[in-house]
Amino acid sequence: MRYLTAGESHGKQLTTIIEGLPAQLPLTRDNINESLLRRQKGHGRGKRMQIEKDLVEITSGVRHGYTLGSPLSLVIHNDDFKHWTDIMGEDPIQGNKKLRRIVTKPRPGHADLNGALKYGHRDMRNVLERSSARETAARVAAGAVAKTLLHHLGIEVCGYVKEIAGLQADDMSELSMVDKKVISEESPVRTLDKKIEQRMMDKIDQAKRDGDSIGGITEVCVEGMPAGIGSYVHYDRKLDSRIAGAVISINAFKGVEFGIGFDAAHKYGSEVHDEIAWDEQRGYYRKTNRLGGFEGGMTTGMPLIIKGVMKPIPTLYKPLQSVDIETKEPFHASIERSDSCAVPAAAVVMEHVVAFELAKMILEQFPHDQFPKLKQAIEDYREEIRCF
Ligand SMILES: Cc1cc2nc3c(=O)[nH]c(=O)nc-3n(C[C@H](O)[C@H](O)[C@H](O)COP(=O)(O)O)c2cc1C
Ligand SMILES: C=C(O[C@@H]1CC(C(=O)O)=C[C@@H](OP(=O)(O)O)[C@H]1O)C(=O)O
């Protein structure tokens, strides 16, 4: 299974095409819209999220509530396009630089300058339109399809905020998946402790007043993955490495950790590795889960715990110094609008890109033309490893 996305941030629409899904998977647009709505929430988003109401249209691949096995295409319309029809239209546009809204002032931390150098764009709008995290809506749509597939296989994926501006959200490790989901779905900045939640929002508001931005840490937990998904035999079949790539591909993500992650560097082996145990009901299991559910590029059968680090948003109301590519003069640009913190939304994005990689690996490992047969194959495999 693979997917592609297309679409510019202020263009007409975002398109996602997923190829390689099994036939006969139950799928409706509600499965996807729920995820899209969650991605739009969270304290610290800018005015754009008030304009957009992300709803998907399934334009192929589904009939009467079930996948056909043919490519699935999903469309999300950009409501903001109506304000940008000339600037984003396909026909040549006349007028002065201001009318055409040509961008010649690159923002440090965004893709503007490097993208302009690479593709030879003297108008950096040609870069920012596609490098914008608007594209993550299309990725969430793909991930929502993957999550639906996983859900029907008894696998649940949940993403939530772990830290914003140095403030730790509550440790959710002991909570049931249902409770984790309630917390992350209500509003992704939610924590169990209302005081911490308020302090996070205060920090975001303060950063916004200061013309600054804020990053944080997101976490994804996965329950129900059987052991042995992924592979040790080749670098590109290691599931943890695919997940790491997918997480780092999210705009502004700069790090990924599995389980205790970087803390493993300061510990002894006896404090890091998870001892193996067995009982009749569960089969093999681990007494601890410090490695976050991965060994040798494969799942261990324990919950997957994955963290991602998001840097602060690059577009600042109090801008950093840069150089105009036309005049070569230094400048301090003022900006029109931006998010000041998008960590809650990014947690939802991470949940969905992880889900896609998990579903993709499962489909690689089991025959999957027909979803009911895939489901049976997974059930048989679970039983086989329980009795191993
Ligand atoms: C959900 C989400 C929303 C974002 N919103 C903004 C924004 O409003 N302004 C901005 O400059 N960057 C925003 N970003 C980050 C940029 O898209 C990102 O920093 C940029 O594409 C450069 O890529 P890099 O940071 O991965 O190097 C957002 C990222 C995410 C995940
Ligand atoms: C549109 C989304 O996020 C956008 C991501 C983004 C960026 O530079 O990454 C910049 C902003 O776009 P605009 O300049 O139109 O306000 C965000 O709003 C979205 O998440 O749907």
Automatic annotation (TrEMBL):
Catalytically driven reaction(s): 5-O-(1-carboxyvinyl)-3-phosphoshikimate = chorismate + phosphate
Pathway(s) served: Metabolic intermediate biosynthesis; chorismate biosynthesis; chorismate from D-erythrose 4-phosphate and phosphoenolpyruvate: step 7/7
Superkingdom as given in the UniProt entry: Bacteria
Binding site for NADP(+): R39, R45
Keywords for the protein's UniProt record, in alphabetical order: Amino-acid biosynthesis, Aromatic amino acid biosynthesis, FAD, Flavoprotein, FMN, Lyase, NADP
EC number(s) on file: 4.2.3.5
GO MF terms held by the record: chorismate synthase activity
Cofactor remark: Reduced FMN (FMNH(2)).
Record: residues binding FMN: R130, S131, S132, N251, A252, G296, K311, P312, I313, P314, T315, R337
Cofactor(s) listed in the protein's UniProt record: FMNH2
HAMAP family (alphabetical): Chorismate_synth
Family: Belongs to the chorismate synthase family.
Subunit structure: Homotetramer.
Function: This reaction introduces a second double bond into the aromatic ring system.
Identification of the protein by name: Chorismate synthase
Organism of derivation: Ornithinibacillus salinisoli
Phylogenetic placement of the source organism: Bacteria, Bacillati, Bacillota, Bacilli, Bacillales
Gene name of the encoded protein: aroC
